[in-house]
Amino acid sequence: MKEKINNHLIKLVTILILFLDQLTKFLFTNERIIIIKDLFSINYCENYGAAWSLFNNRVSGLILISIVILIFLIKYKQSFLLNIRNKIAFGLVFGGLFGNLIDRIIHGFVKDFISVIIFNYHFPVFNIADIAIVVGMILILIAVLKKEDMYGKNSSNKRVL
Length: 161
Hints:
Shape: globular
Radius of gyration: 17 Å
Number of strands: 4
């Protein structure tokens, strides 16, 4: 029974991130709330591009790129060891990609709302999906560096499902 529950961890994390992302985007649409002055605030904005507004107003291309990346990652995850960290990593990335993809398809832009300033640097406004993608990709990079993919010396027959 435990193995069956573990096999669904990627789906569970994906759904959880997707839900949290869409819920927070709904709750914070058109909001401006200062949480910690000159450090952290809720500041709704519409991003018509990708990270740092790259590829601005190229929604169709960004939708296509997101779908291609999702297909690649779904196939690529099968080359990784079957462990909790790797399952969580792929679930985070999938949930984040789906969250931003839904925004692009429905609205033509991504809803961002988390605003952070550190040492007078205003980071680009981001959302829960963006956080999940970054954290998930860092965990995947750690797995690759630990050689937990099929090309690494620590690989085994137990692969992510």
